[in-house]
Amino acid sequence: MNAGLMRMVGRSWWVLVLYGVIGVLFGISAFLWPAKTAVAIAWAFGVMAIAEGVLSLLALFDKNVSVSKGWLVLYALASLVFGVLAVGNPVATAGVLLLILAAWLLVAGIYRIVLAIRIRKAITGEWMIALSGVLAILLAVMFLMRPAAGLVTVALWIGVAALFYGVLQIMAGLRMRKLADAL
Predict the structure, then answer these.
(1) What is the pLDDT of residue 121?
(2) How far apart are the C-alpha atoms of 183 and 179, rounded to whole Å?
(3) Helix crossing, 90-118 with 69-88: angle to 10°?
(4) For residue 84, what are the CA distances in angstroms to 42, 44, 48, 76, 78?
(5) For residue range 125-181, what is the model confidence (pLDDT) as tens digits?
(6) 99-113 average pLDDT score
(7) What is the DSSP string of 75-135?
(8) Secondary structure of residue 5 in the 3-state scheme
(9) Contact 98, 154 (CB under 8 A)
């Protein structure tokens, strides 16, 4: 890596540390308030969808847009409708997203079991694929039976991921700072 690039990367170490601190704080808040975190995530999806919808509508006036205007309008309207619904009622949106996750897990679980049965003579260890299917189905059933607990569980896992992300970003940022100081 050339010295100029190293200096540029070294100067931006604080950005990674800032991202890391935000990630750690988000992870901690997900543990302290998991239900509120799930609702906040649904609300954030809504805000992002509204922004996508507005930008897509603005893109309709761009002569160099690479997708057809019809698809662009459809995408913009779908984004705006979802966004307004999510921002207006994030609790319901979080619940619906969990139900969609449960449906996907159910289908994925059945698919994995069928796959394991079909390939059982071709590979060894197919039982692991079948087991992952059974676990996916069990998780789907638990989400369907107790959606509030499912939302809290998802928020907690997102919190775990945010904590790991944050710590790794802080570590990378501090290493970049040492690199910059060495130059």
Answers:
(1) 85
(2) 7
(3) 120
(4) 11, 11, 10, 12, 10
(5) 889 999 999 999 999 999 999 988 888 888 999 999 999 999 999 999 898 888 777
(6) 93
(7) HHHHHHHHHHHHHH-HHHHHHHHHHHHHHHHHHHHHHHHHHHHHTTTTSS-HHHHHHHHHH
(8) helix
(9) yes
